[in-house]
Specification:
single chain, mainly alpha
């Protein structure tokens, strides 16, 4: 019997909130290397959380967590089904690749407001993962 420290049902919520972990570090970073390290940390944290859910989803489980009720019978809930898992895997791997590309591009062009860019990039990651994992399709608008 395998013991998990984190209940499987909370993993979709952790995956949703993982990118937000980096925002205070990004905003408070004293230099570009620290700021970008926080961005990579959040990307790998998200990927790790997704990979923790992968065996369960491949075994046929659908981790789900109800956040709060909106109307009776249609709560805001996050779930990780096989299609959502594919979306999450691709998106989290692409986040890490995109971050590496953005670092090179923004540094070479000496772009202004790089800190703001990385903070909004984390916000975008939360929103697109929320849209990909919401249980009721009409509730996608709550993540836009």
């Amino acid at each position: 019997m395998q013991t998990m420290l984190i209940p499987e049902s909370t993993l979709p919520l952790i995956a949703l909130l993982a990118p937000l972990v980096a925002v205070p570090g990004i905003m408070g970073a004293r230099g570009p290397n620290v700021r970008e390290a926080f961005t990579f940390f959040a990307g790998f944290l998200l990927l790790g959380t997704i990979l923790l859910m992968l065996p369960g989803v491949l075994a046929g489980n659908t981790p789900e967590i109800v956040l709060f009720p909106v109307v009776p019978g249609a709560p805001i809930a996050l779930r990780m089904d096989p299609a959502g898992m594919l979306f999450a895997l691709v998106a989290s791997v692409l986040w890490i690749i995109t971050t590496a590309y953005a670092i090179g591009y923004m540094r070479s062009k000496q772009e202004q407001n790089q800190t703001r860019f990385y903070a909004f990039f984390c916000d975008f990651a939360v929103r697109h993962h929320g849209c990909g994992h919401v249980r009721q399709p009409p509730h996608v608008v709550s993540f836009l």
